[in-house]
Design a protein that fits this description.
With 190 residues, the protein is mostly helical. It has 9 helices and 5 strands; from the N terminus they run ααββαααααββαβα. A hairpin with a 4-residue loop joins strand 3 and strand 4. The two termini are 58 Å apart.
């Protein structure tokens, strides 16, 4: 309402789009005193009927579905799961750089998205295994920081950033000072 009242000044009205508070305004090119139609200066006023209509829905969130065979609770649960689906697309676009795609043939495009889907599945499983303590970005950074180098007698030194060490701890990897036998290192991801 405050925003709509500010828009009654014609200069501000012209600079905004027909969204938000602007939908509560009526624009008439009429002179208030004479009733004549003005060509250049519109008369902008608050549309009280539109406000009254919208007030009846204050505090309500109306959901409409074509699924008539499900209960209200099922529909609400389905609606709430949309944010998780949207988060998956966000992770694919940002964390995995799934776009832009630099392949042209249909089999290559399908293969690209298969790799992205499998990566997302693995990421979600890892998040679940870590009790959601780490965001996908932190998990990716931790795994990218992982390095190893060979030592004597079949041992490897494994190291990474603090998140990588914490992930290993949460996954139950009890490596003494990150010195790991090669046989153990080969089974790391299993």
């Amino acid at each position: 309402m405050e925003y709509a009242e500010k828009l009654t000044a014609s200069e501000r009205f012209r600079m905004t789009m027909k969204k938000g508070g602007k939908r509560y305004l009526e624009v008439e090119n009429i002179d208030e005193e004479t009733g004549e139609i003005k060509r250049l200066t519109p008369h902008i006023s608050i549309n009280e009927e539109q406000i009254a209509f919208d007030e009846q829905f204050d505090g309500l969130n109306v959901l409409i579905t074509s699924e008539v065979g499900i209960s209200d609770d099922e529909m609400l649960a389905s609606y709430r799961s949309l944010s998780r689906i949207e988060d998956c697309f966000k992770v694919m676009k940002s964390t995995f750089d799934a776009r832009p795609i630099y392949v042209w043939t249909e089999p290559h495009i399908k293969a690209h998205f298969l790799v992205c889907f499998v990566s997302l599945t693995i990421m979600r499983l890892l998040e679940h295994k870590l009790n959601k303590e780490f965001s996908p970005e932190r998990i990716q950074g931790a795994l990218q920081s992982a390095q190893c180098r060979p030592l004597d007698k079949g041992y490897w030194e494994v190291f990474g950033n603090e998140d990588f060490l914490k992930i290993n701890e949460l996954l139950g990897k009890e490596w003494n000072r990150q010195y790991v036998p090669l046989e153990v290192l080969k089974t790391y991801g299993k």
